[in-house]
Design brief:
With 233 residues, the protein is of the alpha/beta class. 31% of the residues lie in helices and 21% in strands. The strands form three sheets. Strands 5-4-8-10-9 form a five-stranded mixed beta sheet, with helices on both faces. A three-stranded antiparallel beta sheet has the order 1-2-3, with no helix packed on it.
Length: 233
Amino acid sequence: MLIQPVNMSETSFSGKEHFIRHRRSARSSHPMKLQVPDEHCKVVAEKKRQKKMKTTSDWRERRNAIRLTNEYTVETLVVADADMVQYHGAEAAQRFILTVMNMVYNMFQHQSLGIKVNIRVTKLVLLRNRPAKLSIGHHGERSLESFCHWQNEEYGGAKYLGNNQVPGARDDTPPVDAAVFVTRTDFCVHKDEPCDTVGIAYLGGVCSAKRKCVLAEDNGLNLAFTIAHELGH
């Protein structure tokens, strides 16, 4: 069959009339007994097209509805570095971080994920002074490793196991699925010098008590995209 547009001068053939010519195959040893005249192919009515598309859409909605029944909550610790608290001021830093984490929460609610993920801030720590055991510098990997070790000592390890408080532990110790450290220190991944890196995390780190960490640089409201990206790892 040869399919051609009726009007060859048209630049766009989508939705236009075409005609179909039936031709005898060159390989056939028997001549065609029936000569089929040229005919126009039928144009699918707009209503039928919409109906077909709606069926596909309904199927996708039903599929998403089933998948979205899986719901997860990531209980998150957020720590603001002393340089960030000093830059914004304590009250403004708290408002800013909660605004950013609300944006992160909304990003993880998007249906394209296929599952529902709730990012819940269970504890917000504003550092007045950087602890001696917490080493944050231009080398991003070392800084991330230091924060992971520090948060595990402070809010993880044997002090808190799952949802059952261990006897003798501090009453305010929150559950921590992921820990986020926000700083204004300019860090890089593999070298001790300034660069454009704004976030770093371990791949699959949320599955490990000592690697469930995110290091993010405060660069305004873009911080929300950085944290969401790194939490995605």
